[in-house]
Write a structure and sequence with these properties.
This protein is mainly beta. The chain has one domain. The chain has a 14-stranded antiparallel β-barrel with strand order 1-2-3-4-5-6-7-8-9-10-11-12-13-14. Strand 13 and strand 14 form a beta hairpin. The longest helix has 19 residues.
């Protein structure tokens, strides 16, 4: 039963995931690049590009966030996804004085193994499906407030005997004003090309433009994050056949006001997040993704789809993060991240 469900998830991911991310269904490849991997990002709505601190995991979202405070940092993330599907990320960073900041990371998504069968139902063996992206990042400050960066991704995807190879590039910039505790960022994601196709047809990558602002509230332990997603496309709505278009009692068509339609289209670009910075070693996080909620909730019972929660905890020399994102009434994935700075384990003479 689990293997059958994983197979359905695999097909659904590649045929419908672009729709879930408000692209034209089935038109994009490598949608796993859009998965929120770090636990901190997942708990803050799934998108976070504008917080500049010494968290190496955030450079996964915006390469310009990579800086010298992350020198010799190591981070590992693991996600307990639906059924036996699993994915994660590992990253390491170094700074070379006068040259800039570098990072290397590997993202993976493993769908597990499946039973292969002929059209007659005869079992013919097993097959697997997995995807990987090797990320090489670079950033450097332009001055005391502005930084820029880029991440080159080399992508490998294998679904049974079908193989695809490609490259993608993320470009980002960040403005950070420590005196006013505010930062703003712009990221252009997944500029690239599929070099080797699964089967003849070349497919576009999940290109996206994002903007974000973060603000630490003065004299209070709160930081709010606001991210605009999918700026490359205004209308992220689609026709949902499960939503009634006719009043079941009167038989009249259900007509929405122009203001309601405009507000729905606008709100689908918003992702909100907030952190309660209780101490230097512990904080709480909450996020809300309107687009995710509108696309994955049930009309009869929406629950808390689109909301996410988590916390960050520092123990000894390790930073631990946990995030839970509610996708659907069926549940949501648990995100775990552990990071440390290897330089903390030795003292230079």
């Amino acid at each position: 039963m689990k293997k059958a469900f994983r197979l359905i998830c695999l097909c659904f991911f590649f045929l419908s995931a672009p729709l879930l991310y408000s692209q034209s269904g089935g038109n994009n490849i490598y949608e796993f690049l859009n998965l929120a991997v770090p636990a901190r990002v997942a708990s803050l709505g799934g998108n976070l590009i504008s917080v500049k601190d010494n968290d190496l995991n955030l450079s996964f979202q915006n390469p310009s966030l990579l800086d010298s405070t992350m020198h010799n940092s190591l981070s590992l993330s693991y996600i307990d996804y639906f059924t036996d599907i699993r994915y994660g990320y590992a990253a390491y960073a170094r700074t070379y004085k006068g040259i800039g900041n570098f990072s290397a990371g590997m993202q993976f998504l493993d769908y597990g193994s499946f039973t292969a069968a002929a059209v007659t139902g005869e079992i013919t063996g097993q097959f697997s499906a997995s995807e990987y992206a090797l990320n090489l990042g670079y950033s450097r400050p332009l001055d005391s407030m502005f930084s820029v960066g880029a991440t080159l991704k080399t992508i490998y995807s294998k679904l049974d005997e079908y193989l695809s190879l490609g490259n993608a590039l993320d470009i980002g910039g960040i403005y950070n004003n420590n005196r006013r505790n505010i930062s703003a960022a712009l990221v252009i994601k997944n500029i690239g090309k599929e070099w080797k196709t699964y089967h003849i047809v070349h497919e576009p990558l999940p290109f996206e433009i994002q903007m974000g602002v973060s603000k630490k509230i003065p004299h209070a332990p709160f930081r709010v994050n606001f991210t605009l997603i999918h700026l490359e496309k205004w209308n992220l709505t689609y026709v949902d056949p499960t939503v009634p278009t006719v009043d079941p009692i009167t038989g009249d068509p259900i007509v929405k006001s122009k203001l309601s339609i405009f507000g729905d289209k606008l709100a689908r670009h918003f992702v909100f997040g907030g952190e309660v910075l209780l101490t230097k070693n512990f904080n709480l996080r909450v996020g809300y993704n309107y687009l995710r909620r509108q696309e994955l909730k049930l009309e009869t019972r929406s629950g808390i789809a689109g909301f996410s929660f988590g916390f960050g905890l520092k123990i000894y020399k390790f930073n631990l993060s946990y995030g839970f994102a509610k996708y659907h009434l069926a549940g949501g994935p648990n995100h775990f991240t552990i990071s440390t700075n290897l330089s903390d384990f030795y003292t230079r003479k």
